[in-house]
Design brief:
With about 425 residues, this protein is mostly beta strands. It is about 0% helix and about 45% strand. The relative contact order is 0.08.
């Protein structure tokens, strides 16, 4: 009994419809020219399957030894598949067969899945920022239901304005969402392709909803363009006063940044190599106030960095000079002028009167040396020095002819 290709048939679910990634099975049955089933095997059936993109889909045929053969294949992509079955290179009855393959019910559906988050918003992300840009992919199945499990092969490809590919990481949260992180390098339009790769053949992929995204990246802070100015950077500042200056954040074109958040780090070193404490305040407008307090005179090294990169014209040397300290300065000498008058209260205009001044320490009675000068015009200049501040009280008495003048004696505390 010889099998007639034009009478042989194929049937089964694998020729009716199917689902992506799920095995399709159909049966091939050998028949003679009268259409009668042949009850033994050994018939050289062959099968070829073409996917929706013209790709070959592997198919296996097992001879059951009873005149039938079982064909098995697994569709990789959704869409119509063309199944050719031949015997001795002649198509069997009704071949080729067109089999519609639906999207997988177990994996995400690219066209229904979507993404959102600040990393996809225009004007929010900068090409230099401490934290990476972030967005989230939401996996949705073919029926429009959000997935609650992970395992889908989402991928992100980012091309910057210079046509360089920017690395992106996709973290499977195992709840149907995927967190994407990337660090933009160039300001301008960055094209973000968000795709779902085929789990059996990853080279095949589909864009998710609204992909690709065109994201406008702002120009971030460029350390080499940032500037600093202010009195705290000028030679001649004193070691008794706070030294202040202001840092201006700028982008790569030298334009001022108008928001804060950059991690500028000031550092000041004194002539002995010791670090001088300094503070920096973020004003939230792209400027940063820096203040330090030099403790000794001499050349101080002032530096400001951003992400370990020196800003423009840094480091620089600032010459600090010694300033006068109110806490340690004191009055070293004193003087006062005595105006002599006659008994009518008129100023005398000649000298030679018996004017004497005595200054004594109230604690021990010790007398303080002084110098008295008769100026010859009725006035007498008394000059004296007191010891370095010692919390002492001194009694000062000026007399004429042994009698205390008006207001004398009086006390002076040092």
């Amino acid at each position: 009994m010889v099998a007639d290709p034009t009478q042989c048939v194929a049937y089964g679910p694998g020729l009716e419809n199917g689902e992506q990634y799920k095995e399709g099975v159909f049966t091939i049955e050998a028949r003679n020219k009268l259409g009668q089933k042949i009850p033994f095997g050994g018939h050289p059936f062959t099968a070829k399957i073409k996917g929706p993109f013209g790709e070959d889909v592997p198919v296996s045929i097992v001879d059951n030894g009873d005149g039938t053969a079982t064909a098995t294949y697994t569709p990789v992509a959704p869409g119509d598949h063309v199944v050719e079955v031949k015997l001795n290179d002649i198509p069997i009855k009704d071949a080729p067969f067109t089999v519609p393959i639906d999207y997988s019910s177990e994996t995400a559906h690219a066209g229904n899945s979507w993404a959102d988050g600040p990393g996809l918003e225009n004007g929010v992300n900068k090409n230099r920022q401490l934290e990476p840009s972030v967005f989230t992919i939401h996996a949705v199945d073919k029926n429009g239901q959000p997935k609650t499990t992970g395992g889908d092969l989402f991928d992100v490809i980012i091309e910057d304005p210079l046509f360089d590919i920017i690395p992106a990481t996709v973290l499977d949260n195992n709840d149907g969402t995927y967190t994407v992180n990337y660090q933009a390098k160039e300001p301008g339009i960055n094209v973000i392709d968000i795709v779902l790769r085929n789990k059996m053949k990853p080279v095949l992929y589909e864009h998710i909803k609204d992909s690709p995204k065109h994201v406008d990246i702002k120009s971030g802070t460029d350390a080499s363009k940032c500037t600093a100015e202010g009195p705290g950077l000028v030679d001649g500042i004193k070691d008794t006063e706070p030294a202040k200056f202001k840092v201006q954040a700028r982008d790569r074109d030298g334009k001022p940044i108008t928001e804060g958040g950059d991690n500028f780090k000031p550092k000041v070193t004194d002539p002995n190599g010791n670090e001088v404490p300094c503070e920096i305040k973020d004003n939230g407008d792209g400027t940063y106030d820096v203040e330090y307090n030099p403790d000794i005179p001499g050349p101080h090294k002032v530096d400001v960095t951003l992400d370990d990169t020196h800003i423009k014209d840094m480091p620089k040397t600032v010459k600090v000079k010694a300033g006068a300290s109110a806490a340690t300065s004191f009055i070293e000498s004193f003087n006062f002028l005595v105006q002599t008058r006659d008994k009518r209260g008129e100023n005398l205009t000649t000298g030679g009167m018996d004017v004497k001044t005595v200054i004594t320490n109230s604690a021990d009675g010790g007398e303080v040396p002084l110098k008295q000068t008769d100026k010859g015009d009725g006035t007498y200049l008394i000059e004296y020095s007191l010891p370095v501040p010692s919390n002492a009280t001194y009694l000062i008495n000026t007399t004429i002819d042994g009698k205390s003048i008006v207001g004398a004696p009086w006390e002076q505390r040092v």
